[in-house]
Structures are given as C-alpha cells and as structure tokens.
Write a structure and sequence with these properties.
Number of helices: 6
Distance between the termini: 53 Å
Largest sheet: none
Structural class: mainly alpha
C-alpha cells in the first residue's frame, strides 16, 4: 500500500513537471509574437502574413546560430537602419529564442494560426 502511494506520488510529480515544461515552452511562442508586434510590426506588417511567408526549414535556417542569419539580413540592409541598434545590442540575443519559437510554431507548413494578430 505504501509503495503504491509512493509510485502514485512520483507519477503525479512527473506529470506536474511535464505540464509546466510544455506550458513554459508554449509561452515562449506567445512572447515571440508579442515581441514581433512590439519590435517588427512597423517594418514587416502583420505577424501572420510575415510568419507564413516561410516554412519550418526556412525559419530554422534563419534562426540557427542564435539568429545570426536573421541579424545579418537586417544589418546589411539600409532599409532596416532603424533596427540596427536593436539587432546589434543586448536585447536581440535575449529575444532570439522567443522569436524562434514563434516563427516555428506558426510557419507556413504547420497549419497553426496565431490567436491575435
């Protein structure tokens, strides 16, 4: 009886940890969407239209190496001059994982649609 209770307690703990992990992983996609709306909306327009322009492999390639390819696109473009300070500063590296989660969650080949755009 005591062994069963201990096993049940361990199972409950494992399920709790797994649910928190999935919740926090999913939350990063929402953080990425919020960051996109705050930092990128003026230049790129609606998040949905921007994100579905590429599929998962394309977004993966742009976000590899802590977003270096995406950073280079912006830094090399004179049209993106307003964003250079952001991309060259300390904030972009902190935000990369959220952008990546957002882009991969709603890429064209996923069929997912952001709740609010």
């Amino acid at each position: 009886m005591v062994k069963g209770f201990i096993l049940l307690k361990k199972l409950f703990y494992m399920l709790f940890v797994i649910s928190i992990t999935f919740t926090s992983l999913n939350a990063a996609a929402y953080k990425g969407q919020a960051l996109f709306q705050k930092m990128c909306l003026d230049c790129h327009g609606k998040a949905l239209e921007f994100v579905i322009a590429k599929d998962t492999p394309e977004w993966t390639k742009l976000m590899e190496d802590k977003g270096s390819p995406l950073l280079l696109i912006h830094v090399k473009s004179s049209e993106a001059e307003e964003s250079w300070k952001y991309f060259k500063g300390k904030r972009f590296p902190k935000h990369v994982r959220h952008y990546k989660d957002f882009f991969l969650e709603y890429a064209a080949d996923t069929g997912n649609i952001p709740a609010c755009d």
